[in-house]
Amino acid sequence: MSAIPFPAPPLDSDEVLALRTEFRAFLDKHLGHRTPRQRSDNWYGFDRQFSLEMGKAGYLGMTWSKQYGGHERSAYERYVVVEESLAWGAPVGAHWIADRQSGPSIIKFGTDEQKETLLPRIAAGELAFGIGMSEPDSGSDLAATRTKAVKDGDVYRVTGTKVWTSFAHEADYVILFCRTSGTPADRHNGTSQLLVDLKNTPGLTIRPIIDLAGQHHFNEMHFEDAIVPAKNLLGREGDGWNQVMSELAFERSGPERFLSSIELMYQLIEVLKGREDDAAMATIGRLTAQLAVLRRLSRSVAAMLQNHQDAGLQASIVKDVGAVWEQTLPDFARQLVDAEPDPRTAAAYAGVLANIVHNAPSWSLRGGTREILRGIIARGLGTR
Amino acid sequence: MLAEMIQRLFERSLDDAAQAQARGGQWLDALWAEVEEMGLPLALLGEDQGGFGLSAAEQGEALMLLGKLAVPLPVAETMGANRLLAKAGLPLADGAAGLARADHLTVENGILKGRVERVAWGEHLSCLALAVGDTLYRVPRSGWSLAEAGSAVNFHPRPALEIAWEIDAEAPLPHCPLAEGATLRAHQIAGALEAALDMTLSHTATRVQFGKPLQKNQVVQHELAKLAGELACATAAAGLAAEALERGDVLGVAAGSLRAREAAGSGAGIATQMHGAIGFTREHALHLYTTSLWTWRDEFGGQVFWARLLGKAAVAAGGDGYWPMVTQL
C-alpha cells in the first residue's frame, strides 16, 4: 500500500551478457594500464581521448535515435555500459554529463537545429557538458535562482554567478538555469534554460573552486552582461523549472550513486586475501550483500525508465541508500585494516583510501543532498 | 489472486485473540485447517504437481503477505518444505512441515539419530524436510520426540527434536533447506516491514504533539524515508534470493538473505522509535511485527553464517574478480 514499488529487473538476456563481455574487453584495452589510485577517481576522471574512443565504439548516446548519432539500444543496455564504466573507474568526465542528462534534455526540449548540431557530437564523445544550476545563494533551493537573462534582440544578456560546475574549465557547454522574467520571489515562474558555449561567450569568466582534496573539478562561472544567442534557448522561455526537474531526474537515476568508492572495496579485498579472519570475511559479506541489493534496485530503475515509467521516487531511494554505502565504506575498511591514508603515496591501499576519504563527503551533496532526497521520498509517502 | 485469498482468509480468521494464543505456544488448529483447505501448502509447486503454477512475482507476493499479516503458523515453512520434497522426488507433507539442516546426525543400521535444534512449531508438524550432508530425509512425526522446549523472540515455539527414525524416505539433496528457509524468511521480513511502514505512516499522521501531526516534522519525515528505503532493500533482497534459489546459486541466496536480515533490525528499530512508547507495548499491533522481525532475522543460518560464506567467496574472487562476481549475484 505505502511501499514504493520496484519492479523486478529483467534477467540478463544473451545480448546483454554479450554486451557486458564486449564492453569489459573494451575497457581492458583502453584502460588496462591505469593504477588503482587513478581508477579511484571514478566518475570525476576526465579524459577526452577515452571519451572519443567510447563514441567511436558506439557506447555514447546509446538509446538515442540514429538520426542524431545514437544507436537505438535499450535503456537497460546503456545501464550496463554505465555500471561497467564505473566499476572499472573509467575516466568518464568528458562525456558523463552530456550523455546522462544534457543530451536527453536536448532531445526532449531542443530545437531541430540544436539536436542536429549538438547530439551527434555528444554521441561521438566530442562535446563535454557541465551543469549550470547551483548559485552562491541557491544550492538545494534551486527556485531561488538569481542569474538573469534579458532578451535583447536576437541575444540574451546574462548576469549572475553559478557555482560547483564540474569541469567548466574543460567542458564545451553548460545548460544554464536562469531567470528570464520576474524576481527570485516568483520562485518557479519565469525561469528558463540556455545552452551556453563555454569556449565562446563574451562576458563569461570561469574561475576554479579548489576542493578539500586540493583538486580542481569545481568552478565558478561568472556572467557579466554575457552574450548568448537567443537561438540557444532550450525549450520554452518560462518553462525552465519543469525542464530542470526533468534534467535532475536523469541525473539522479544512475548507478554512480553507489559505485563511487568501489575501488576501495577491490583494494580492501586484496589486503584481506589469505587472512583467516572470520570477522573480516563477515564484514565483506555484509557489504557485498548491500551492494548486490543496491544493484538490483538500480536495475529496477533502469527497467522502469526503459518502460517510460516515472522513476523519480525510486531513484531518490537508490541514491539515498547508495550514498550511505559508498560513503561508509572507508569506515568499514578502517575497522578491518590499519593503514594511514596518504594522498601522495604510490602504495595502492593507502593512496586509494586517502582519495576516498577526501571525496566521500561530497557524495551525499551532489545531485541533491541527502536531506533533499529524504524530503522527496517522504513526500512520495504522502506525508507532505 | 492467491494474494487476495490469503488476505481474506487471515483478515477473517486471525484476530488478536488468536495471536495471543499463538504467543502462548498454542497451535491454531482451525486456522491451519483453513490453510490446508485453501491449498496453501502446495502454493509454490507447479500445476503438474498439484500446485498453483504461480509466477515468481506471485510467489514472492504470497510469501510477503504471510509476513505482512504476521501469520503465526508455519505456512511459509510448509510451502518451502514441499517445494524441496517435490524437487527431490519425495512424497509431499501431509500437514504442516518444517525445514532443517543437521550435519551431525548419524545413521546406524538404517536408523537416523540425533538432535535437531529449534524447529518452528516442531510438536505440531507432520514431517520434517531434513538435510544431513548431501542427503534429504523426509522424517515423519513418528520419527521424533520433543527433546527440549524453546521459544522465539515472538514467543512461537522453537523446540529441539530428538530424531530416532528408521529411514524410509531419502533422496539426494536438491538444495539446502537453510537456503530455502532463508529465502522464505527474506520475503516474510519484507512483508512485515511493509506492515510496519503502513502502521508508522498511519501513527505519525494521526498522533498530534506540539500542535501538529508527528509526520509534519522534518526529522520524522526523514526517518520515514529511511524506513521506506529499508523496505525497498528488503523487498529487492527477497527477490534476489528467490531468483538465486531458483538457479541454485547459494551466494545469491546469501546476499539476498543478509540484506533482508539487516533491514529487519534497522526497520524494526525505526518503526518502534517513530511510534514512541506505544510501540513498545502489546496494546499496539506493531509488536507482532517487530518481534517477528527479530525472530526471522536470526533463523535458517544466522547473519554471521551467511556473511562469512559470501565474504569468503568475495575475497577468494580477489580485487579483479570481485565486480564480475557481484554482477552474477
Mean pLDDT across all amino acids of chain A: 94
Structural class of chain A: alpha+beta
H/I helix tally of chain B:
10
Q: Tell me, what's the shape of chain A? A: globular
Spatially, the strands of the biggest sheet of chain A line up as 1-4-5-8
What does the model show?
The complex is a heterodimer of chains A (384) and B (329). With 384 residues, chain A is of the alpha+beta class. Chain A folds into 3 domains: 14-127, Butyryl-Coa Dehydrogenase, subunit A, domain 1, CATH 1.10.540; 131-239, Butyryl-CoA Dehydrogenase, subunit A, domain 2 (Beta Barrel), CATH 2.40.110.10; 253-380, Butyryl-CoA Dehydrogenase, subunit A, domain 3 (Up-down Bundle), CATH 1.20.140. Chain A has 12 helices and 8 strands. Chain A has helices spanning 14-31, 36-39, 48-56, 75-87, 96-109, 112-123, 240-252, 262-272, 278-306, 312-336, 348-359, 370-380, and strands spanning 129-132, 148-152, 155-162, 173-179, 191-197, 204-210, 216-229, 233-234. In chain A, a hairpin with a 2-residue loop joins strand 2 (148-152) and strand 3 (155-162). The radius of gyration of chain A is 21 Å and the shape is globular. The model of chain A has no long low-confidence stretch (mean pLDDT 94). Chain B has 329 residues and is an alpha+beta fold. Chain B has helices spanning 2-13, 16-23, 29-37, 56-68, 75-88, 177-206, 218-247, 250-275, 286-296, 303-328; strands at residues 97-101, 106-108, 111-116, 127-132, 135-140, 144-148, 160-166, 170-172, 208-209, 212-213. Chain B has a 4-stranded mixed beta sheet with strand order 1-4-5-8. Chain B has a 4-stranded antiparallel beta sheet with strand order 2-3-7-6, with no helix packed on it. In chain B, a hairpin with a 2-residue loop joins strand 2 (106-108) and strand 3. In chain B, helix 4 packs across helix 6 (177-206), helix 6 packs parallel to helix 8 (250-275) and helix 8 crosses helix 10. Chains A and B meet through helix 8, helix 9, helix 10 and helix 12 of A and helix 6, helix 7, helix 8 and helix 10 of B.
